[in-house]
Predict the structure of XRE family transcriptional regulator.
Amino acid sequence: MPDLDLITQALARNLKRLRNERGYTLDALAARSGVSRGMIVQIEQGRTNPSVGTVVRIADALGVSIARLLDYDETSEVRIVTDDQAVQLWAGSSGGSGVLLNGIEAPGPLELWEWLIMPGEGHTSDPHPAGTVEIARVEQGELVLTLDGRDHVVPAGSTASYEAGWAHGYRNDGDVPVRLTLVVSVPLPPR
């Protein structure tokens, strides 16, 4: 994994640059994202390590992928992310993880994730912007996908696709780890 300070500084630099490119004041970005002005200031100054939910809300409000917000090397036409450069954004209490493998703007943010959810672990997500879709491919175990309060069981070897504009989450109620690959496509925000 890349150095946490490197990621924090990249987030600070990229957030400020993208906010300014879009002409958003701190207050405007706070209103669009639901993240407090104070938190945005702390992130832009590299003084905090925000939660996954906070980074997702800011990326959604800016209309960029999380990968673009965290990118610390934007110098190549082909972005190759090796395993040791992938960014872990979620850690479960029993060793699970959510790792952002890569992401692009196509034309809205498009992200590829790798998840490991250990038995008894789960992760909940706030609704993404309307029109956001996710595709989850379960490689091992049995994923319990909760969408708008309803559970859906996705066994190994299956792929689920769904609108992610609702509250949703991923859970492992079984006794073997769940491994899944997740693609998230977020539409561009209205201007």
Remarks:
- The chain has a mean pLDDT of 88.
- Strands lie at 87-91, 97-105, 109-117, 122-125, 133-140, 142-147, 150-155, 159-163, 168-171, 178-185.
- The first strand starts at residue 87 and ends at 91.
- The radius of gyration is 16 Å.
